[in-house]
Amino acid sequence: MNARRLVALGLLGLLLTGLDACARSDPPEKPAWTSFPAPPGADRLRPDGSVPWVDEVITNDQLTPPEPRQTVRADAQPCRASQLTGVLTKWEKPQLGGEQVRGFDAHISKLYGYVDVQNVAPTDCTLQGEVPATMLAGGTEVPMQYGHTINAEARKRVTGVPAGGHASLRMDWSGPFCAQIAGPLEFAIELPNHGGRLRAPIKATDRPMCNPGEVKPNVTGGLFTSGFSEPVKAFSPPGSPISRLTATAQPPATLTPGRPFTFHVVLANPTTSAIELSPCPGYVLELFSMGDASHEAVNTNQLYRLNCRPTETVPATGTLTYEMQATVPSTMTPGRHLAVTWRLFPADRVQADKAWVVLDLTVA
Q: Do residues 261 and 159 both lie within one domain?
């Protein structure tokens, strides 16, 4: 065996040995939430048995990753209104999806929702481009501002809708909404590429508030339409073990304007089996105080992830106490009431109606 071949075999052996060592030393895969840097001690229970609070702000997408993109035939043509159906079944507050609302926008009543569009034809089709839309009440256009401008990237995006498949179209509806409406509400959506008008019923009954003049006298409500996208994952039906959890709260001792305060949420498991908090769920924290001529209103919502580092299990017929923190707005004055609402927001978006608490607090 010549020297060159011996050197090559030696290098190959070292390479294989190194790869084998790497394979053996790779740590086990960790849950995605552990990548967030947490303060020291966040992975251990407090001496009183409670779970430490971690300021981990998240978005709804971090709880529900996007579904794999749908594939359609290469020769799929633009969708026609005659081959689609659409419906909007639920409105959400932007903050409950983890979206940041700042400045003047934080004072405007806003809702958003997704029109679920289905291809009921036997052939694939595609959706691309801007989507003008109006809202109709009993067939008559509802008077408000309408917008539909999207950026260049969204304008280029092609959403494939296979036969029987779905797509989503986001609608943002802002207040003040003071119109008197009669008859069922629906969207009239102008499909791209001269695809015709799609009528999509609105099954949700929520409306933005009518509060003209509260911040700016001349502000008017409106409807903004985004571009089509892959289907947004629908809410899962009740049935997850997490939906059986109940919640109570232990209020803070005092509230001071501009200062953080600590309270505790107790999750109780009434069942005879342990409930796993996996994947680690989120929770919504809302602060609300009614404003008047002398006081600025408080209305904030934020989505956080629960701290699952010390434990991911609520024991059978037992409880688990979580430390929570928030900050009293500096605009609050002594004697004013501050409502603190805490709601579990699981990763699979199961109904968690019992894991919901409201604290009615008074600023000292």
A: no
